[in-house]
Amino acid sequence: MKQSIAIAAFCFVIFIAIATFGSVQANPQTALAPQQTQPPSATPTGTITTTPTADCTVAPAAPVLNKPVDKGTVKRPVVKLKWNSVACATRYRFVVRQGSKKGPRVMHGGTGKLEKKSSSLPRGYTYFWNIKACNSSGCTPSDIWSFKIAAATSPTPQPTSPGGGTPPPPNSTVVPGNPPSQIAVYKGPGGYLNTVANELYLFDCSNQDYWLEGVREGQAVYNIDLWFAQNETISYRAFNFETGQTVESKTLQANSAGYVSYTANTSGWATPYHYHLEFKGKSSGTAHCGHFDLVSNTASASAKEHVAHTDADVERAYRAAGLEPPH
């Protein structure tokens, strides 16, 4: 009897062992699968974190200025402005004012880059600048920073007029020949335009990033162009940059100091269009230019018409107007 019980117990143990082994074999992953770890990008709670996508249907965020440092002093009169990229911005607008946040503008325009080099600015002044990040939905301004250009430590050589006219002293707002009172913020050879007394802006035929915005139909645009030859005959042409149509042409005369001034009356010029002006000396070949947006009197306060100015665009427009493209 005892022998029968022992045999029965042994058989029961064998049965349990076989059943257990078979269960493990039928689902090997249950016992052998490694423990799953969280991916590197998961939070401690297991939630995947993602970077939000910028909403480009609204104006970009405010840009952050980079250089020159705020309230710093720079040694050279040519200053490179730099700022950080902004998501969804397609163009950046810049403005530099002399003396205060509301002082006369000495530099303004637009660019698709993240930096802009100034022309030579007068030494000894503090300048205030900011940037706007723009797209088709609007623009957002940065903070306003300032920098000072150190005064010259040694006498600065005076420029020489092509015709031998007496040049003004460095940093002077006085141009030889007593030009009309609109002249202000004199900065050297070139073409100047304005529509507001005491706010005059330097332009250059080879630099297409500067222009006057929002000039109203019929508004007068004052021009002064410096450093031609003495008493030189000047060929003046105003043309529609987008169509190539000449809207005004005249022969002017430089004075004994080598400058010419002229006021363009935009009455009758088509709007909204972008216009270029060229003043070219017939004997010296010296050329000075300016350009501006002309908009309707009923247009919004922020209206503008500035168009692409790639090298190909400039060449097309000038040749359509019968002019040699600037270099």
- Following the backbone from N to C, one meets helices and strands in this order, namely HHEEEEEEEEEEEEEEEEEEH
Q: In terms of structural class, how would the helical and strand content be classed?
A: mainly beta
- Major sheet details: 6 strands, mixed
Which CATH class of one domain applies here? Mainly Beta
Could you report the average pLDDT, rounded to the nearest whole number?
74
Explain this structure.
- Among the domains are: 65-149, Sandwich (Immunoglobulin-like); 191-320, Macroglobulin (MG2) domain (Immunoglobulin-like, Sandwich), CATH 2.60.40.
- Helix content is 12%, strand content 33%.
- It has helices spanning 2-26, 28-32, 311-320, and strands at residues 65-67, 72-74, 80-83, 91-98, 105-111, 115-117, 126-135, 138-141, 145-149, 191-196, 199-203, 212-216, 220-225, 233-240, 246-253, 260-265, 273-281, 287-295.
- The strands form 4 sheets. Strands 2, 4, 5, 7, 8 and 9 form a 6-stranded mixed sheet that branches.
- Mean pLDDT is 74; it is low at 21-51 and 154-178.
Could you outline the blueprint of secondary structure elements for this entry?
Elements: H1 2-26, H2 28-32, E1 65-67, E2 72-74, E3 80-83, E4 91-98, E5 105-111, E6 115-117, E7 126-135, E8 138-141, E9 145-149, E10 191-196, E11 199-203, E12 212-216, E13 220-225, E14 233-240, E15 246-253, E16 260-265, E17 273-281, E18 287-295, H3 311-320
Parallel strand pairs: 2-9, 12-18
Antiparallel strand pairs: 1-3, 3-6, 4-5, 4-7, 7-8, 7-9, 10-11, 10-13, 13-16, 14-15, 14-17, 17-18
